[in-house]
Amino acid sequence: MSPKGKTWNYPFGSVSLRLGESGKESWYIYYRTDRMRVRKVVRLAQSRADALKVLQIEVADAFRGQYGFKRGEKKVRFDEFGKIYIENYAKLNKRSWKDDVFTVDLLNKSFGTMLLQENNPLDIEKFRSKRLSEGVSKLRVNRNLAIMKKMFNLAIDWGYAQANPVRRVRFFSEYENLKERVLTSEEETRLLAACAPYLKSIVITALNTGMRRGEVLGLKWSQISLPQRLIRVERTKSGKVRFIPINDFLFHEFQRLARANGSAEYVFLNPRNRKRLVDTSTGFDTANKRAHITGLRFHDLRHTFASRLVARGVDLITVKDLLGHHSVITTQRYTHSNADQKRRAVQALIIPEASASALVPSVSRQSMSSHLMDS
Question: Which residue from 64, 104, 161, 178 puts its CA 20 to 30 A from 286's CA?
Answer without folding.
Answer: 178
